[in-house]
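The protein record minuted underneath.
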Amino acid sequence: MKYEMLLDEADSENIRVIENAKFKSRSDGLINGNVIGINRNVRSTRKRACILAEEIGHYCTTVGNILDQSDAGNRKQEFRARLWAYDKLIGLDGIINAYQHGCENLSETAEYLEVTEEFLIETLHTYKNKYGAKVEYGDYVVSFIPYLKVNKK
């Protein structure tokens, strides 16, 4: 499972993960140095994987305290961490693998990729902005407009 894979990756990077953290804020996940906390109210393993991937993304890509999202530099760092998580948990390979596996809608695709539907939708929106209407990748063309579509070249 992806969540366990991410826990192993965190461990190999000497990142301590507190899986049932109690936060004063409404955040689902936070990182401070090499300690990641996942809110104890998050029960879904798929959602925990999405949160953990983003927090590891912060560890790998972020410098300093970026909680103030009114700052443009902080928003850029937030985006980099999310993109890292999207690429880690889904990526173009994952979209193509889901197609090859026979996934026919967002729900099936999210389940196959072990992410939440919300995370998948955010990923597809980001990829549409990053790649445009479609992208050629290996033997496939992945289209994002008007909806997700994968075709073999």
